[in-house]
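Marked as duplicate of an earlier ticket. Keeping the data here for the record.
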Amino acid sequence: MPFSSLYPPLDSKTLALWCEAAQHLPRPQQDRLKNGSITILVPKIGVLRSWVKGQTEETLLSLLTSPILTQTHLPPKATDETGHVLTEDEQSREVALYLEHVLRFLSLDTLAQRKAQSFLTSEVLVGLLNGVLKNLHAWWDTDRLAGTLAKALRAQKDPQLTQTFQKVYTSLLVNSNPWHQRMGVVGLMEASKVGKHDPAHWVATVLISPVKENAANHYYLSMSLGWALTTWWQQDPEGVEGVLEVGLKGDTVIRRRFRQKVRESLRTVKDDRLRLERLLAKG
């Protein structure tokens, strides 16, 4: 089933590029990904990754900044969370957005690995983030985008660019969209790994934001908080615990997610975990 014209017309060069990319998207296997409220089929990412890695920097930049035109097979009678059966156009759009994000993330990841600094400009990176945010409704998007952007920031080695992204991520914490809030939490967690930073500062930042309230009603948002708090706590256990004791007082959801992530982590030192358990037991 071909995608309809979901985007503005493309020039012939860009159209040829996307047609070539489409040839490297095999028929999706019966693997499934819960993308927001819609289940879609997942392509073989490895095949597409190999094709992306063979492209020039100029082509990768085009992949980052151009819309996708390709073909795929859609699941029968996909429904949203209300039980509404999605039309072919609605299904096509969901799959198109997903595949577009895959290509963008793989292209960014490849540029970062090559340390192609001249292509990883602030305009390109911020533009990519803003473009994905317009259609963001899945944990996969937030986590992959935050991780690949962090790789780009490390490749650039520009403290000002890292600070720019930290400000953008912080602004997302007060957004009413829980997926944008998750992007803010995971983005701050990943960006804080670039250069020097104060883990306690970021813990305080997320715990005084509206994210804390919304996490009680959004599973993926609460899980992102548990993940981020665990990461920052592991970086500076004693420095973060004082903030946690105040910030998690009276909270049950985030406390539970945090405890879960700490127990799952293989990097947690036993003595630190026991001390944290005593702290969390205080309520």
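See parent ticket for discussion. Residues 31 and 272 are 39 Å apart (CA to CA).
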